[in-house]
Every structure is written in structure tokens, then in C-alpha cells.
Amino acid sequence: MVKQYLTEREVVSQLHLGGGTPTFLSEDEMRGLMAMLREHFDFADDAEISIEIDPRTVTTQTLQLLAELGFNRTSLGVQDFDEQVQVAVHRIQPYSMVEQCINQSRAVGFQSINFDLIYGLPKQSLESFARTLDQVIALSPARIALYNYAHLPTRFKPQRRINEVDLPSAEQRLQIFLMSLRRLLAEGYVYIGLDHFAKPDDSLALAVKDKSLHRNFQGYTTRADCDLVALGLSSIGKIGASYVQNLRTLDEYYAALDAGHLPVEKGFHLSQDDLLRREIIMDLMCCTTLNIAEIEAKYQISFAEYFHDELERARFYADEGLLDLNDASVSVTSKGRMFVRAFSMIFDHYLSRQSGAKYSKLI
């Protein structure tokens, strides 16, 4: 159905199969899915084909199948190895289980293994997370995403089982992140930005060096800006200057398919102002430097006049040594890289229009 709306046969440079536990699919279902994708799309020779796996359910046979189907990158939601924390979040996966999964993944030929860690979880402390980092470093993943836990129980039903009293304070969260940052840097990982780290020889780290780093809905990427074709429940796509999100409940999603139309919940077409602000945010998050002359020439604006209010708000961060503001550029300092999300939010005029909306906290 999606193929009807694409003007030509597309070449896939990246495929990400995520959404929690895609390895829940049976072998026949996984083979069928990949066969259909390859039937309708051409895959580039160097395509990154990644999948999220759950070490609690995956087997050597599963990993062998994934490698056979062309998957070359895998991502594991480790979160935290501390037993008390795992009990508190109702996700039990001992270190030995993850270690076995990693060894098996490497044995079948996965080129890159990524870990997702979360700080700010219930029962978590500076000391307990330091021990988790020891174990993570021993497993030597190529990339590490260190996410701040977003406690939004009104939006996510499973979080209602979490006792808010057990959550670490904002100060404790900050200390855990700073400790993790120092530790990972000392171990040779490169700080990519926001909450991502990679080994020096990883393509993400190399992209930081040559300024080719990009960011999309999946996070940081080495691939240039391209269309994102969203398939599956709640997934978000980007075609040209438009965004689209699929329906978020299974019943609605299947009902739309059964009725013979795309299971799209909403779409949004970006204005010239949206495109301008998106480019500014992208530059700050990926390159840490915004070239004002280039922006002015491309969008035919006076940057100082167009963003007068934003620049006034940014001066607070400049006074704290987190931003460098001058007539030629806006640059994030080394100290300010941890707060690039806050700087980017200055240029997102939609945030100020959201009344009553709740978002995850910066720290």
C-alpha cells in the first residue's frame, strides 16, 4: 500500500526493526517480513540493517537466522544490571544472560552491537550504576545510548507499577550522568552528543570528525538526510518536507488495513519557518556550530532580527560559558555539549504553544 505512493523504486540505506521486541516474531514471520521488504525495495550494498533484540527471549538459532536475513547491527535494552533496579522496573535479565547473547551475536557475525542504558530508574544510585558501567565496559559494545528515564505514568501504563518514591532526585540523576560521562570518556569512547557514545573507530565517531553527523527519529546516524518510510504501529515517517505518524493502537491499525487504506493517524507539512528552525536545531545537535551567514543566504533573512527573542534567551547560556555567541556563529562550548537539547529548545517555537503538555525532563 505504501509502494503506491512512491514515485520510483527506492533504495534502502538503513532499516531499523524496533518497537520493543521484534524478535517476538516467529522464524517464518521474520523470513516473510524481510522477503516482502526486499521484494518492494532495493537494499544498498552497504545498508545498515539493525534490529532490537531481547536477551531474555533470543536464542542462538534466532541470531543465526537474523544474520542469514542480512541483519548486521543489533541493539539491546540493557537499562541497568543491578538486581534491585531490575526488580523495581519489572525487567529481569542477569549479566550472564546478556553476556551470552553478546558472545553469540559476535559469533554469528554481527558487525556492531549497541547498548541502551537508562539513568534515573528506581532504586538506582551512583554506586550501583558505577558497577553496571564496569560490566558494560567489559562487554565492549560499539555504541552506548545513555538515556534519562522519563517517568510519564499517565502516558505509559506499565510505569504505573513503579513507585515514584524510589526514583532518584534530579541532583542524583545529574551525578550519575556526569560520572558515566567521565568513565566512558576515560575508557576511550567518543561523546557523540546528547546521550550517545561510540568507540573511536565506529562510523558515528568518524562522522563527528568530518562533520557528516546527522540525526533523525532513530537518533544519531551517519547517513545524510533522506526519506524515512514508516511501517508499523505508531511509527513516524518523513517524506520530503512532511511528517506522518501511524495509528498507535493495534485495533485501529488493523481496522485501517482491513479497510484497505494506510493506517495513518496524522500528518504535518513543514513551512519555510519549520525548515529553517529544523536546520538550526540539527546544526546545534550534530555540528555544535551554526554558521549564520550560510543560514541568512539560504533563507534570505537577517538572523539577528528573525531570532531576536531567541538570541536574548540564549545569552543566559552564553553568560554561563555554555554557548559562544557572535555575529558569525552560534557555537556550543565543550562544557555546554551536555545541554544542547536545552539550546535547541530555544529555537523550537512549538514548545511554547503547548499548553498542559508534559515532556521528559532534561535532567
TrEMBL record:
Name the Pfam families on file.
HemN_C, Radical_SAM
> Where does this protein reside within or beyond the cell?
Cytoplasm
Per the record, the pathway is: Porphyrin-containing compound metabolism; protoporphyrin-IX biosynthesis; protoporphyrinogen-IX from coproporphyrinogen-III (AdoMet route): step 1/1
Task: Report whether Membrane shows up as a keyword of the record.
Answer: no
Q: Which domain of life is it from?
A: Bacteria
The chemistry this enzyme catalyses reads: coproporphyrinogen III + 2 S-adenosyl-L-methionine = protoporphyrinogen IX + 2 5'-deoxyadenosine + 2 L-methionine + 2 CO2
All residue ranges annotated as the Radical SAM core domain in the record: 1-187
Q: What PROSITE patterns does the record point to?
A: RADICAL_SAM (PS51918)
Enzyme class (EC, first level): oxidoreductase
Q: Which prosthetic group or cofactor does it need?
A: [4Fe-4S] cluster
Q: Which UniProt keywords apply?
A: 4Fe-4S, Cytoplasm, Iron, Iron-sulfur, Metal-binding, Oxidoreductase, Porphyrin biosynthesis, S-adenosyl-L-methionine
What InterPro entries does this protein map onto?
Answer: Aldolase_TIM, Coprogen_oxidase_HemN, Coproporphyrinogen-III_oxidase, Elp3/MiaA/NifB-like_rSAM, HemN_C, rSAM, rSAM_sf
Q: What is its EC number?
A: 1.3.98.3
Binding partners and assembly: Monomer.
NCBIfam families on file:
hemN
Name the family.
Answer: Belongs to the anaerobic coproporphyrinogen-III oxidase family.
Name of the protein in its database record: Oxygen-independent coproporphyrinogen III oxidase
